[in-house]
Design goal:
The complex is a heterodimer of chains A (about 375) and B (about 375). Chain A has helices at about 5-30, 40-55, 60-85, 90-110, 140, 145-165, 165-175, 180-185, 190-215, 225-235, 240-260, 270-295, 305-325, 335-350; strands at about 125, 145. Chain A is an all-alpha fold. Chain A is globular. Chain A starts with 5 loop residues before the first helix and ends in a 22-residue tail after the last helix. Chain B contains 15 helices and no strands. Chain B has helices at about 1-45, 50-60, 65-90, 95-115, 120-150, 155-170, 210-225, 225-235, 240-245, 250-275, 285-295, 305-325, 330-345, 350-365, 380-385. The relative contact order of chain B is 0.18. Classes of the chains: A mainly alpha (about 375), B mainly alpha (about 375). The interface between A and B is large, with 49 and 52 residues.
């Protein structure tokens, strides 16, 4: 039985939803020059605040708003410490993860003691008539909870902000060359505050997505590393909105696949087939990318079959062979879960066009230079 | 004239002493601030903060055994903090200390379980060295990917941590599982295959000797050797380091290897000398991350890691006592820790202002006739950058 069915795609997009939201928020922060390692903590306080408000008020949208607010509040600490006090961004982020974990679990324990049950009404799915009947991708894109639609809408919005708006350009300037942003009359300080607050609110919303949208309760540490994964998605996506969202969907697909394969006794042939196809596409893209780069620089085009494309092709053929042979192998589910992380490193090691991080990422800005 | 320079020298000594006092005072203020915030939260939930603090201190230092627990928890925190400091000197971020620590713990447990044919002393030595080596290699993977392929080290170290966590989850359920136990863990190590205990009925073991040695070596290498200087040069200005003939790529990779090796030492120590003789899914806690904030509170100074780790270990060890005795959830400790770190990080603002004043004073002093202007102290520059 092939695991790549309608349900798989639906689960992929659902799991990717919170990642897309938090990763696009973090993208804005990093473009402006602040890397936020504390997303995990912000998601956790967002998840608890969403759970709490959902239980108290009973409205899912109020719950999401509460989650956003909680993430925002924690990111005020981040912004103040990194922008105003110019503290090391990574360390403050790590501290905020500790703080967020502590705050959310402490508040949950205090709140939950004496409650008869810990469940809240989950957000209901909005099925868009007509479109949701499309084969394969219909349910994935048009039969989801509304927060998924919000996540999907965030992608073009982020793209427009990044490409088409003055504000987006200024954000990028604040992260690339803060002095020039200042010269052009923008306040780097204000832009960075905006970036950090957007990341915090997104992380809070993504946390509420988990508790209110997906699980229907709060669990300590329920984000399970998604904040760190979002950080990785920003870098894997090359600091571009569409790339970042694509990386988030990739992580979602890997987790959805793992959920499907947990129950299987042996790896279905179609998984090998897809793996082989991905390797081929990757090899082709690398070869074409190298050629295009060479042409752009006016160098002789590299030979179409290099050692690297040979190795990749060989691996692909091996994967196809496995697909036809259907050997009785089963990987433990834990190793399936480790696969996307290993693939991420592999993909970063072999990216087609080397992307550069914002030049001033992580560096505090001082108006007028000097320390 | 000599009288005068002596006077200026005294003034300088006072100002650097004053500076140290100010920095220590700021950290003390941050710690009080963190405890104050936690106390207010405790009070807001209707419990007595005084009682909670009492339970906390009693839980951390109240008896010889409890002191032993606190000391035992200090050890890995110090070593992980050293690992962060070494990489950070080269301006590199090793966010994967946790993963390197997990790898080391697994290797140590495996060797110690498989090694009963060896004499115990040899088995412990072998387990420690293999664990350190494995963790160093694991960190080197990230460093080499950075040097050769430009892979961002923040992502690669984080990803490798996730991989290590999943491999851990798999090994304790499969190949390394204890058949005699219903919970997922490795078989418990025999007493003689662990470090000898120093404080009886507590986990504090002779492993602390390795920690002290690591501390001394790191402090010496960073402060007094060419490699330490190259590390700092590479971190502060890679271009001038290259111009001065430093192989910056090699230096960074080496710093990662050392950093990972130290995380490995911590991981091996948890298994061979910590509170529990098994590796389970949560055996590493979040030491790999807490160590980072210990380094920050210590202002990236190896020796200052001792009091900083003592603070975090005491909070950690006292937290559970507080939960059982005062009825306050132990997570309040995480809140206090987080607030302390943010306040310490932010206190840079005040340190910088103080530095600026000291620098002004020095310039004024230098302008006095007959005195040479003093060069800017590189230590201080490094401190302001953190």
């Amino acid at each position: 039985m092939s695991p790549f069915d309608t349900q798989f795609f639906q689960a992929t997009i659902l799991i990717a939803g919170p990642l897309i939201i938090v990763a696009l928020g973090e993208l804005m922060s990093e473009l402006a020059g602040v890397i936020n390692v504390g997303l995990e903590g912000m998601m956790l306080v967002g998840a608890f605040a969403g759970f709490w408000a959902g239980r108290e008020v009973g409205n899912v949208w109020v719950a999401v708003a509460a989650g956003m607010l909680a993430g925002l509040l924690l990111s005020v600490v981040m912004a103040w410490a990194t922008i105003e006090a110019r503290a090391n961004q990574i360390v403050v982020g790590v501290a905020l993860n500790i703080l967020g974990t502590g705050l959310s679990v402490f508040a949950f324990q205090k709140y939950s003691s004496g409650l008869p049950d810990l469940f809240i009404d989950r957000m209901r799915r909005w099925t868009i008539p007509g479109l949701s009947d499309l084969p394969l991708i219909g349910p994935a894109l048009f039969d989801q909870i509304p927060l998924v639609y919000v996540a999907l809408v965030c992608i073009p919005v982020a793209w427009i902000v990044y490409r088409k708006t003055t504000w987006g350009l200024r954000m990028r300037a604040a992260g690339e060359l803060p002095e020039s942003a200042e010269t052009a009359g923008a306040s780097v300080r204000a832009l960075r505050w905006q970036g950090v607050l957007i990341a915090g609110a997104s992380a809070g919303a993504a946390g509420a997505f988990l508790s209110v949208g997906m699980v229907g309760t709060f669990l300590g540490g329920m984000t399970a590393g998604r904040g760190y994964l979002a950080l990785a998605a920003v870098i894997v996506g090359g600091w571009r909105p569409v790339g970042v969202a694509g990386a988030a969907v990739f992580f979602g697909a890997a987790e959805a696949l793992q959920l499907r394969l947990q129950a299987e006794t042996s790896v279905p042939g179609s998984v090998w087939l897809v793996l082989g196809a991905l390797l081929l596409v990757f090899a082709a893209a690398r070869t074409l990318g190298a050629r295009r780069n060479a042409v752009r620089r006016g160098l002789a085009p590299p030979p179409p079959v290099s050692l690297e494309s040979g190795v990749l092709g060989g691996l692909a053929i091996a994967a196809f062979a496995l697909a036809s042979a259907r050997p009785d192998v089963s990987l433990p589910s834990m190793l399936w879960l480790a696969l996307p992380y290993a693939l991420t490193i592999a993909a970063l090691a072999g990216v087609i066009v080397r992307v550069r991080q914002p030049a001033a990422l992580g560096i505090p800005f001082v108006r007028g230079g000097g320390a | 004239m000599s009288e005068r320079s002596a006077e200026v020298g005294t003034r300088r000594l006072y100002s650097s002493l004053g500076e140290a006092c100010v920095k220590i005072g700021l950290v003390a203020g941050a710690v009080s601030g963190g405890l104050l915030v936690a106390g207010v939260i405790v009070a807001a939930t209707g419990k007595s903060p005084v009682e909670a603090l009492h339970a906390l201190i009693d839980g951390a230092f109240g008896s010889k055994e409890r002191l032993g627990v606190t000391l035992a928890r200090m050890v890995p925190l110090i070593v992980v903090a050293l690992g962060w400091i070494v990489a950070f000197r080269a301006n590199k971020v090793n966010l994967g200390l946790q993963g390197q620590l997990i790898v080391a713990g697994l290797v140590a447990a495996w060797v110690a379980v498989e090694g009963p044919s060896l004499p115990p002393v040899l088995a412990v030595a072998l387990a420690t060295s293999m664990a350190v080596g494995a963790a160093a290699l694991y960190a080197a993977l990230a460093a080499v990917l950075w040097a050769k392929r430009g892979v961002n080290e923040i992502v690669s170290t984080l990803m490798l941590t996730f991989v290590a966590q999943q491999v851990l989850a798999w090994l304790i359920r499969g190949p390394l599982a204890d058949p005699a136990s219903s919970s997922f863990q490795t078989p418990p190590l025999q007493r003689e295959y662990r470090w000898p205990i120093i404080i009886s009925r507590s986990p504090f073991s002779l492993e602390v000797a390795l920690c002290i040695a690591a501390l001394a070596v790191v402090a010496f290498v960073l402060g007094r050797t060419v490699f330490g200087f190259q590390l700092r040069l590479t971190g502060e200005n890679p271009e001038s380091a290259r111009n001065a003939g430093v192989n910056t790529l090699r230096t960074v990779v080496l710093s990662f290897v050392v950093s990972g090796g130290l995380a490995g030492l911590a991981g091996a120590g948890i298994v061979l000398g910590g509170e529990r003789a098994v590796v389970s899914s949560g055996f590493a806690g979040s030491i790999g991350f807490t160590g980072i904030v210990v380094a920050l509170v210590a202002a990236n100074n190896p020796i200052a890691c001792i009091p900083a780790a003592c603070l975090f270990a005491a909070l950690d060890a006292g937290g559970s006592a507080m939960q059982s005795q005062a009825g306050v959830p132990s997570e309040i400790i995480l809140i206090a820790q987080g607030v302390i770190v943010v306040l310490v990080a932010a206190s840079n603002l005040l340190v910088r202002r103080f530095d600026a004043r000291v620098a002004d004073a020095r310039i004024t002093a230098a302008r006095e006739p007959g005195l040479h202007p003093s060069p800017v102290n590189p230590d201080r520059q490094a401190a302001t950058q953190t």
